[in-house]
Amino acid sequence: MHFAVNHLGHFLLTLLLLPALRKSESGRVVNVSSLGHKRGRIDFDDLQADEQYNARQVYCNSKLCNILFTKELSRRLSETKVTTFALCPGIVHTNLGRYMVGGYSPMTMKFLITPLLGFLLKSPKQGSQSTRHCVLSDNLQSGDYIKDC
Predict the structure, then answer these.
(1) Does residue 104 carry a catalytic annotation?
(2) pTM higher than 0.85, yes or no?
(3) SS3 string of 62-126?
(4) Which one of 53, 59, 99, 145 is the catalytic residue?
(5) pLDDT at residue number 84
(6) Is 135 helix (H, G, I), strand (E, B) or coil?
């Protein structure tokens, strides 16, 4: 399910929107990824990691797929006005990772890990800057990977 939520849903939505994007004057596809993509590996025989599930690894795999999809979509749409981008917003302090605590109890995360590492976290507003840059900038090449704007 993890892979489906983090990649396949976005993939399907993009494919369903492609006819409208191609008709537009300047369609833009922006996929949010993560530096975790560097740890990703694609096992085509076990995409959902049913045989050996590891939440962090599946997350990294799905983020790698987001980038690969962005690059391939850019290549396939190179003769159109549709541009594609992938981005990493950085480590943002949100509730999205509340159930992925890497083996730590929620109390340990709340009272020990987060306070100690909190200075590394971006606010949601700061974390949104890479997305805003991809959506608004005219100085990007289709297929670009943007991080930490």
Answers:
(1) no
(2) no
(3) HHHHHHHHHHHHHHHCCCCCCEEEEEECCCECCCCCCCCCCCCCHHHHHHHHHHHHHHHCECHHH
(4) 59
(5) 97
(6) helix
